[in-house]
User: Which sequence fits this backbone?
């Protein structure tokens, strides 16, 4: 089977810390994955009738619904899509890839920007072998909440926590002004349906506000190289739910292998999924 990425694309990702893959998904996949994620987001956010202005600063950036694969079998087909998982393996140059978690990031009309940040400081995992597939279900322009990336910022030795929730620090660390990256111009990426944008867990990235009257529908799959270990004791569902101790390999049914995986072999819902876990993933229960 031919590889889904060229060596040039892999080299670009390793140099820049992000890669746009035009037409990574077919029109049918965009349609069916989008319909499945729309439904799942609707289910998870049922009962939440707040306007954007009534939400917290973080919630104004997007409606975030994590681990939709667990309770929505139609989404599972997207999360464990073999083509995307193989791309992630090639980009991280590793034989095995697991899913850390998936998430919908739906930026509402009037939604604010996504503050510039790196992902890895949010996750207790090491080494820095993670990549996110950012999957838009419609074209995304800068008016709608396009992403921008600081090329090469994953290679400058920067690892700074930016509190994009604004809960601990009302003014999050201005990472764009950090001397390690201040000279790097952000590259804005507008995409078409079917495009998938991959970014490394240390790449500094941000997204513009949504000034249109349409929802920016985006789904993300976060992958990590099989063999990564838990880095720290602070809580995170992807390690706590499967009792991974500090220094232990992150593995189990909450973070299943996505590549290699046989065609049609899709993981089951983790055995601990139930009201307690489901509630944590729901924005509001009816
Ligand atoms: O989609 C966005 O607005 C932000 C996405 C992001 O930060 C991520 O995928 O790591």
Assistant:
């Amino acid at each position: 089977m031919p590889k889904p990425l060229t060596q040039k694309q892999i080299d670009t990702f390793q140099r820049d810390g992000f890669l746009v893959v035009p037409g990574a998904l077919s029109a049918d996949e965009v349609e069916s994955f989008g319909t499945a994620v729309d439904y799942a987001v609707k289910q998870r956010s049922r009962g939440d009738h707040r306007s954007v202005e009534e939400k917290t600063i973080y919630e104004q950036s997007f409606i975030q619904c994590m681990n939709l694969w667990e309770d929505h079998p139609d989404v599972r087909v997207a999360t464990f899509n073999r083509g995307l998982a193989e791309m992630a393996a090639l980009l991280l140059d590793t034989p095995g890839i697991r899913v850390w978690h998936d998430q919908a990031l739906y930026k509402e009309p009037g939604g604010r920007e996504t503050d510039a940040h790196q992902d890895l400081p949010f996750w207790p995992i090491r080494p820095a072998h993670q990549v996110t597939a950012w999957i838009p279900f419609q074209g995304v322009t800068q008016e709608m909440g396009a992403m921008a990336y600081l090329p090469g910022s994953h290679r400058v030795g920067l690892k700074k926590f930016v509190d994009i929730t604004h809960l601990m620090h009302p003014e999050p660390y201005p990472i764009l002004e950090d001397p390690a990256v201040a000279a790097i111009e952000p590259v804005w990426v507008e995409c078409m349906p079917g495009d998938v944008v991959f970014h490394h867990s240390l790449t500094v990235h941000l997204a513009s506000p949504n000034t249109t009257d349409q929802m920016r529908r985006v789904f993300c799959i976060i992958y990590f190289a099989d063999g990564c270990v838990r880095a720290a004791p602070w809580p995170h569902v992807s390690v706590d739910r499967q009792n991974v101790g500090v220094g232990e390999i992150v593995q189990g049914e909450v973070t299943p292998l996505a590549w290699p995986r046989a065609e049609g072999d899709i993981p089951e819902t983790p055995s601990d999924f139930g009201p307690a876990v489901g509630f944590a993933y729901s924005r509001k229960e009816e």
About this structure: Residues 7-281 form a domain with the Jelly Rolls fold (CATH 2.60.120.620). The pocket of 2-oxoglutaric acid is lined by residues 62, 105, 107, 114, 119, 132, 134, 145, 205, 207, 218, 220 (CB under 6 Å). Residues 152 and 216 are 27 Å apart (CA to CA).
